[in-house]
Structures are given as structure tokens and as C-alpha cells.
Structure prediction request, 1292 residues.
Amino acid sequence: MTEPVKPLSTKVRIAASLPRRYRAEQRFRLYGRAAIVLAISALALLLFSVGAQGFSAFSIYRFNLPLHLDAKLIDPKGTEDPAIIAKGRYRKLIQQALSDAFPDVRSRKDKRQLYALSTGLNSVSLRNRVVEDPSLIGTAIRYTAPLSDDLDLYLKGEITQRHFTNEATPLTIDQGPAKILTLSGSPDTFSAIMDQLRRSRHKAATRLDAQAAKLRENLQTATAEVAKIQTTRIEELATKADTMRKDANAATLTLGANDPSILLGFHKGFIKATEISPHSLSGKVLRPPTSMQDVQNWRVLRLDLPERARRVSDQQAVWAESLLQAGFLKRSFNAVFFTNADSREPELAGIAGAMVGSILTLLATMLAAVPIGILAAIYLEEFAPKNRLTDFIEVNINNLAAVPSIIFGLLGLAVFLNMFHMPRSAPLVGGLVLALMTLPVIIIASRAAIKAVPPSIREAALGVGASKTQTVFDHVLPLAAPGILTGTIIGLARALGETAPLLMIGMVAFIADIPKSLSSPATAMPVQIYLWASSAERSWESRTAAAIIILLLLMIVLNLTAVFLRHKFERRW
Amino acid sequence: MQAKASSAPKVRARNVNVFYGSKQALFDVNLDIPDCSVTSFIGPSGCGKSTFLRCINRMNDTIDICRVEGDIHLDGLDIYARDVDPVILRASVGMVFQKPNPFPKSIYDNVAYGPRIHGLASNTDELDGIVETSLKRAGLWDEVADRLDEPGTGLSGGQQQRLVIARAIAVRPEVILMDEPCSALDPIATAKIEELIDDLRAHYCIIMVTHSMAQAARVSQNTAFFHLGKLVEAGPTEQIFTNPNDTRTQDYITGRFG
Amino acid sequence: MQNLLPLAMAALVVLTLIAWFHGRNRAVASAGVHPSALHSLPGYSGAYLAIWAGLPAFLILALFGLFGNLVVDQLLRHALPQDIRALPVEQLELFVRNARALAVGGTASETSPALLDAAQTYASLSRQSHVGVMVLVIALTTGGFFFARRQISAKFRARNHVEAAIFALLVACSAIAVLTTLGIVLSLLTESLRFFSQINALDFLFGLKWSPQTALRADQVGQSGSFGAVPLFAGTFLITLIAMVVAAPVGLYSAIYLSEYAKPSTRRIVKPILEILAGVPTVVYGFFALLTVGPFIRQTAEAVGLGAQTQSALSAGLVMGIMIIPFVSSLSDDVINAVPQALRDGSYAMGATQAETVRNVVFPAALPGIMGALLLAVSRAIGETMIVVMAAGQSANLTANPLEPVTTVTVQIVTLLTGDQEFDSAKTLSAFALGLVLFVITLGLNIISLRVVRKYRERYD
Prediction:
């Protein structure tokens, strides 16, 4: 044990190892940072995508249309009997108002399209208005109601971008055969439009090529039979692409079903282009112009998504544009979203029902879970003897806190609904189920708060002759209250966002009324979100996201309250 | 083996001031510590002796709010200079703590830890050799040779402390710092450690913080007395204990305060 | 009649308050001019009286509120004519439900003279039971009141009696946690046993085909349904695996970075942000998976020439992983912080860098605790419902391809129980069998991990 120490060689070896070790250190640090950045950006992406999708649902296009409350359609005999007034033909009145705005619409098919601008359910609100104030009958009123959700999306530019260009070159108008108008101007008037169109056709042809290429790739692995079908399909695609390119280069462009819609507006009318050459454009009249004189100022509306690929026809788009220009449509705050319950029509659907349902449910949860949870915590922390039974209860509570929430739903279904025959879909049952789920959280938080009260307080109280119960309720509990409150609020916030157990006890039904009591059928915010998210129509997406925003705001308020309480009353012994 | 004769001190501290945040813990400490001997730091609790010890291998760097001013030289090189890497410094200034802190690994891995991270062994035979030498030098080899695979945490307190010393020796340090190495041990284990320290003195500069004046008197050649963050007096142990210059030293040694 | 209950409750509250005041005054009066002669504060005498007057009646009212309808239903069943009582169970059930609806002025799905008769019987039975309960309540209240009133005197140990009552209340509240577990176990077990009486348990646990559609009526041509749950277990496992592949490294590295590297100021900001991730409702994650992650995965997969759908194991797993990150990181953070500083100091004093210290000393020391945390996270992932319901799909594919839709145990429970359900059919009951499996697995994981974590804490305390 006396071999010579070699400090130099040790130092040299350590120094040699250093660059490698510091690189490892840097890498390690980088992984840590990357993990945090990843987690935070996931949160940011989540919030951003919800925000971006939900933002547009907070405003909506509403009609502001003159409507004549024709007595013949409401109360033809002038009885003034509310029962008769309630049975008036309000849907017809609304349709009448729309027809008045577009007197040129004659055919049945067109009329049906026109009436689709306002959902039939709007007649309910009109009826209620008249029933409330029968003196309106026979007068002209302003009809206000939300625009159909598809057109609302269209006007918000969410179906396809609305490209407007304003032009100021003179055009002459010629009446062609039935419903066709031809506009002519100087040689290059329509070149720009044609270039646009050509580009989009070339792009479409390239897309077809890509499709064909992909099919060709798969050809080698396919069976003979499949290969035969696919070969034909590839040929079809190639021909189609060729035709498209040829068509794109023609001197005069004829617009087909795969082309963008090009709508020309002038003299308060609209035509849809069918044939374009550099100096003239022919199109089908979608809304007749007010005059046939030469026009100086006109505009072009290009909708890139072809008509057949969207739920809004060019005709409807033109009507919506005309109403918008005439001031009969206004974009305003979507109040309906906050005052209505669920509806089959997205434009009439709101979160008020779900919100009240959530509040009632949470109320039931609170009434059941908070007192029981606090009392149980007091027992376990202050009174319980240290024995196996107490241990068993503790293990029980800790495990319950980690039991999947859906299991509590099964418990509610089996016990509350099937055994006790309590009402389905009721906030009372939902609240009780959530209370059982929240109980462990409240107990654990309350125990921690009670434990944090120093023993000296208890000793002081016992020392002046207070009984154990008096000590706990008069001295320990008030000091533990802020901590208990904080834990309780956090537990309730979690209950507010819980969905799965409520599905089990039937709170997923479609409920179009705002619930009135703890036992009336209701749904809750998260369940409403689930229901809307599973609906197919596009307009539900933004409403779902908007409902999520509201739910998150509610939860943030709850959590901030908890944080605030913690800061305000936090005490360290 | 004869102690290396060296006139220059191994560790030289000049005007060392240490701050924890705004609170000053050490005031203008000047001290020379010779090589191949045991130097004890004594003084009442909170007097700054541990703080000064932790300055010597820059362990205070790991505490965010700690700031060290002044110069500490090891073999004439400033250890707080910009280009000094604490990793290299700590490899040559080992440290043993108050409570034995073996890693939750086997006895072998505990000792091999330092050589492994520093790349001191090029193959397993060499590593085995380092482990064996270190354990032998720490006087633990005979007790653990047949159970090197067992966890280090399973040893007794005294054995753990010797394991930790073996772990420190394994990277061939020049200085070993010991922060009250026996305070958590029983008298028998303490005696063994003291014996070990006396053996190790031949090869290393050992600096030890201790609460026990008897221990300081038994094992150290030099003693430094700290009081309220100041170095009151330092010198040969004999002189400090028999004939101190300062009355505060006198009072502490005779038990008037402490 | 239905509205009588809240009214009775309100009256009872008022009576209880009166009893409290009366008891207090009586105690004060009994002490005469020496209030210190009282054994207990007058408030305790009031509380004693209030408990005797209010509590028994309250319990009766509460029980009646919960089970009153049940009792009346049962009475009605006994009062029904023989031919109706001979009806099959479901029809009898419907008949009773309709009779009850008619009796309380609701709408019934059909009407018949027999039904109207039954409704009348129901109404009278209901009225009788209400009257009976009210009489009982009044008797209990007055009886309790006068019984307790006699006892109140200066020497009466009211406080001890009241405290005994409080103690009983505390014990009862703690027992609810145990009752909940018991309720879960019993309800899952009884329903599952009914399921296993129709379907072989081995077929359920090891069968490879899941298609629970059974024929609705006996005369209908249809499948008898097959209940092989292996595809569900496989789907659950696949999604959990993907989630853990995301959450374990990200959560662990964030925990390590936060506890070992980050400055306190960074920690103060980042930790709450991660907690937000834990507070987002799962249905929101489901929406995110369905409308953002799912389409993105589909497009990416298609771009590289792979077939994919919007609903896939990958999108559900990824999003679930994100959800679990804070869970893993906060639990591991606790565990890592519990590693004693002495170990770190020991490593630094050897000249180890920070990463070496973390990797070679802190991490091995924390490993048991971290394993516990990961197990808890796995149990969380297995039991998670909404994300998979929305993003994983319904089809019971037995596949390892993460781009295909799969289904899980929780998805099937939701699907089976949210549609129209007939009770007692194997289809509905199978949901409870799945629930039992889910409960057993998560309970096992929880018990193991809680034990591991606690053992680990004890080691360093």
C-alpha cells in the first residue's frame, strides 16, 4: 500500500476525458430543455387550435329583414285568441319575407333553396314574439334571426375564400338566349381572370398526374385483377389531365363542373361565368341586374372550391352577398350561443342548457362531497385510532383516488339508476356520482391541511380545558380552512371537466331545454362538447371549440380562485 | 515511507471572504496548510469552519447564493481562477462528509464510481486493481473482499465511512477534506477512522473539521480555531492546546463556551 | 304529493332550530343565577335537543325520498290484477312505469283501462305512503323532543352526548369511502356474474372476436354476438404503450431538468404551465385528437404513401401521452427531490459533472419511486376514456399497426351503455364484465405503485 502516487498521469487522464464529458453534459441538458419545450408547445398547440377554431363561433350573421306580419296567415278571423295566434303560419311569413327580397325567384326548386337561408326553427322565436305582443299583427317588423349555418360559414370565408376584385372598365351588356347575358369590353378586360382559371386548371391536372403516379406505384404489388382495374383508372386519369391542359390553353374558356366559380356583379345583379374570352364574358343570370345599360364599375367574386364540392350553391352565395350588400345581413355577437340550450340547428344551438346542467351537477357534488369529505378527513387525521381498520380506510381512499372515472359511472348506473330507480340524465345523479369520485381528492387535501396545523395549537386548546371535539372544531378547523377550501375547489374543478361517468348515467341525451331542477333531464358542458364534437356538420366544429373555450375559462376561474386563496391565507408555521 | 519534506504550504488561503446572499459567513481568512499532515479546524457551531473547508474544493459552487472572495492556492495555483475546472479540482481534492453517503450501488461500484467517470482505468483489470488498492488503503478490504457485489448501504456506519474514504482515494487525490467524519459514528468506529486518518497522513494533505477537541489533539499536527466567521488562531496542535495566544482560544479549549 | 317532501324538510329544519333554542334556554333557566353550575355550555343542551328532535325524522324523510318510489312501485305490483302480474318482466316493468307516469300527470307511452286503474291505485298508494311517513315523522319529532327535554338539567352532560353523536357522524363519513369501494366491487361482480352465466369466462378473456351485437328479439335472425375481449385488451395495450413512449421520456426529462438544472424562477413559471396540461378536461384532448392531430397524422401518412384514417391508435396514444406528461413529471419531480442532497454532494465531491451525478447517482436512487410513478401513469392511461372514445375508433381490430383504428375496453363500455340498452342482455352486461377487468387491472397497478412509492419515501425519510 505504498506504491507511488502519480498525480500527473491522473490529472492528464481526467483532462483528456473532459471534452467528451462536457459534450454529454450539454446533450443531457438539451434533452431536458427539449422535453420542457415539447410539453409546453403541445399545450400551446392545443390552446391555439381550440382558440383558432372556436373564435369564429362567437359572432354570427343575422337577418335584419323587413317582414310583414300578415293577419291572414296568423289570425285570419281576428279572434285575438292566443291559442289561435300560437298556431299561425310563421314559417310561411318568413318565407314570404325572403321572397319579397328576391321577387325574381319563381321556380319551386329555387324557392326551396332560398328558404334554406333561414332554418324553419326560426319560426318558433317569431311566434313567441307575436304571442307575447299580439298588437304586432298586421304591422311590418324587422325580422332578426340567425342565418343558416352553412351560409354563415360561407360568409365567414370558412367554406372557401371569397376573392373579390373591383374593376372599373366599361362593359356593354347584351341579352343572349334565355337567362344568358354577354358582357363585352376592350380586348384585355378578362385576361387576368382567364390566367387565373388556366393556372387552376394546370394545378388540377398536376394533381391528377400525381394520383396516377401513385396508382402506378402500387401496380407492381397488386393482383392481376386489381391491376387491370387500376390500369384503366390510370388511363382515365391521364386522358382527363390531358383534356384539362388542352382546355386550359384554349383561346376561349368554357367553365365546367371542376372549375372555380366566377361570379360577376353589376347593377345589383350577378351572373355566373360560363364562357370567357379576353374581350367578352357570357354567364348565367343568378340575380337579374336592375338595368341593361353599359356598366362602368363591376366586381368579380371568385370561389376556388367548385360548386359541387360545397354545401352552398353559387345561387345561395349570390343571395347572401346581395343581402349583405343591402344591409339585410349583419355580423354581430352570437348571443344565442349563450342563451339557448342545444338544438338540431347549429345556428340556434347554445351552451346555456349545458352550463346550467353543469352548475346543478356541481351543486349536487358540492353538497354531498364537501361536508362528507371534510368530516372524514377530520376523523382520519384527529380521531382515528392507529389500527388496521384505519389503515384499511386509508388504503381505500388512496386507491379510490386512482380508480378510472368511468368505473364510478358504472357504479352510478348499477346502484343509483338500476337499484334505486333514480331518474336518468338527472343532475342529482350526476352530482352524486361525481361526488363519490371527488371525495378522495377532498379527503386527501383536507387531511394535508389539517396535518399542517402545528400540534402546539391543539396542545394550547386542550391545555385550557377544551374537549377534543372543541379543539378540533374551534381551533384546528378554522386554521385548516384555507387549505381545505383550496383542495376542494381543485377537486370540484376536476369534477366540472369530467365526462365519462356522466355518459354512463344517461346525461348524453339530446336536451333542448334548459334544466330547471336537480331531477330534470340535463346535460353538462363536457358532455355537450363531446356530443357536438361527434356531429358531422362543419358548423359544429367551431361551436364545439367555443364551448371548450368557455369551459376552460370556467376552470381557469376556479383554479385562479384556489391559487388566490392559497396565496392570501397561506401561513407557514 | 518518509513524509515528503516540503517547505511550501499545500494549501494557501489569503483574505478569504464568503457570503451567503447578503450575509457574510467568513471574514478575511489567511491560512497555510502543510502537505502530508493532518490539520484540524475547530470552533463552535456556525463559526465558518465547514464553510471554509467547502471552499477548498469549491463545493460551495453548488449553492446558488454563495459567493467566495479572496485567493485560495493549491500548490501555488489559484483554484478560483477562471480557467480552473472544478471537476479536475475536485478530483484532486477529495471530500468525506459528516454522514456516510455511499451511493445506492454495490460496494465495488461505489469505489469504481470516480475512476469510471474520470476514465482512469483503461480496462476492467486495472479498475479491479484500483478498487482493491483503495479499499486496502481505507482498511476495508479484509471486511468486504468477499462481498463486493452487495450494496454499500448495507454496511455498518463505520464501514460506510471507510467505504466513502476508499471512494475518495480511488481517484488519487492530493488533499482529502473531512467534514466531521466521526460525528455520526460510535466510539469504536471512530477509533478505527482516526487510526486510518493517521495512516493516510503519509500520502495526503488531510484537512478535518471536528467538534471534538480531543480528536483534534489526537490526530492532527496543526490546528486552526475559528470563531464567528474569523480565523482566530492557527498553529501546531501542541501549542494551540497548551499555550494559545488568544484568550478566545483559551476559553474555548477550557470549555468556557462552545 | 311529490312536493310535500321538500316542504316537510323545510318544516323539519325550522322545528330543529326551535328545539335548539328551547334546549339552550332550558339549560340556562335550570342553572338559575349561577351559569357556572352548568356542566356543559347551554349551546350543547340546545344541540342535544335538536339532534333528538330532528335527526330521526330527517333520516326517515331522506330514506323515503330515496326509496319511496321503490316502495310504492312494489306495493303497486302486489295490488295489480293477476293477469298483469303474470306478464314478462320487461312488460311488467313498462306497465308500472306507465302507471306511475300517468299518476303524477306525466305522459305515458300508451294508455288502456287497466293502466288507468293501475294509475289510480298508484296515486292512492302514494298518498297513503306519504301520509304514513308524515305521521311517523311527526311522532318521531315530538317523541324525541320530549324525551330529550326531560333530561336537560344543570348537571346533564350534554356536551359528552353531543360529542358522541359528532363522533358517530365522523365515523359514518369515513365509512363512505369504504362503502364506495364495496359498492363498486359488488355492483361490478354481480352484473359480471350474470354475464358469465351466459358467456363462458374463458371465451371472454381469451376470445379473439369482439362483436357484441345480439339479436334484439328471439325471432329475429341475427348473430348471437361474440364476446372475445382480446382485441380490446390489445387496443388498450397499444394505445397505452404509445402514450407511455411519449410521456415517460418527456415527463422524466422535464422532471430532471426542473429539479436539477432549472433556476427557481424558471421552475416557478414552468411547473404551473405543466399543471395546466394536467387540468385540461379529457374531452378537450379528445377534440384536439379528433380535429387536429388525427387529420395531421392522416395527411402525413398519406404523403409518405401509407394508408391511414383520422381515427387511429397513434393519434389517441399521442394525445394521451401529452395528457400524462404532467402526471409523470410531477410525480417524478417529488421522487427526485426526495433523493438526499448528501448523495449529490458525494458525487460532486468526486468531481462528477451534473449530468453524471444525475444519471449515475440520483436516477438510480430514485428509480423505485420513478417506477411507481410510471405504473400510476399506466393505470391512468388504461382507464382514460374520452380521448379514446373520440379518437381511437370503434372497430375491434386485432392489429399492431398504430395507423389503424383500434378500440379499447373503455370505448366499448361507453358504446355498450350509451345506446338503447335492454337490461339483462349479454351485450349490456358485458360492459360490466369489461368494467370489472378494468377495475382489477387498475387496482392492481395502483396498489403496487402506491406501495413502491411509499416504501421509497420511507427509505429516505
